[in-house]
Write a structure and sequence with these properties.
The chain contains three helices and two strands. By secondary structure, it is mainly alpha-helical. The protein has one domain: Orthogonal Bundle (Arc Repressor Mutant, subunit A). A two-stranded antiparallel ribbon has the order 1-2. The chain is globular.
Length: 75
């Protein structure tokens, strides 16, 4: 998968991966998807992002996860 919408600029936001040189990090996109699970709400809050930006943010995050197993405790 190509991540042509993910940009890293060491002079912007400490080099965190961002969407299209905007000051919106991949991490912020993921956090916003949790806060706004209904896509219309998400787009109202972040009109500058389109579905391809979201898809690449999710793909980039998945590609950068390692295969470490994390034990979850029961609540």
């Amino acid at each position: 998968m190509a991540f042509d919408r993910i940009t890293i600029n060491h002079d912007r936001l400490n080099g965190q991966p961002c969407i299209r040189n905007l000051r919106i990090t991949v991490r912020r996109v993921l956090e916003a998807l949790v806060l706004y699970p209904i896509r219309d709400e998400f787009h109202r809050e972040y009109p500058e992002l389109d579905d391809e930006d979201i898809r690449q943010a999710l793909g980039y995050a998945a590609a950068n996860l390692d295969d470490q197993i994390i034990e979850l405790t029961a609540a």
